[in-house]
Amino acid sequence: MSQINGMAERFHGRLGQILHSHHFNSAEDLQKTLQRLVWLYNHHVPQKALGHEAPAQTVKKTGG
């Protein structure tokens, strides 16, 4: 369970960095940025807790 918490903490840390370092021109701009961040994280960021696979790869393998 601590590995899952670590994944969430890293994601939230990265999210905080983006929110503090970027200027968003509108709520739509912020929403699109957040959607891209979540998509990239789920599809391209390998996680040690998931056997060094991205979350989407693990879900696809397990049929989830």
From TrEMBL:
Gene3D superfamilies: Ribonuclease H-like superfamily/Ribonuclease H (3.30.420.10)
Superkingdom of the source species: Bacteria
GO terms under biological process: DNA integration
InterPro entries registered for this protein in UniProt: Integrase_cat-core, RNaseH-like_sf, RNaseH_sf
Gene Ontology molecular function, alphabetical: nucleic acid binding
Residues of the Integrase catalytic domain: 3-55
Listed Pfam families: rve_3 (PF13683)
The protein's name: Integrase core domain-containing protein
Classification of source organism: Bacteria, Pseudomonadati, Pseudomonadota, Betaproteobacteria, Burkholderiales
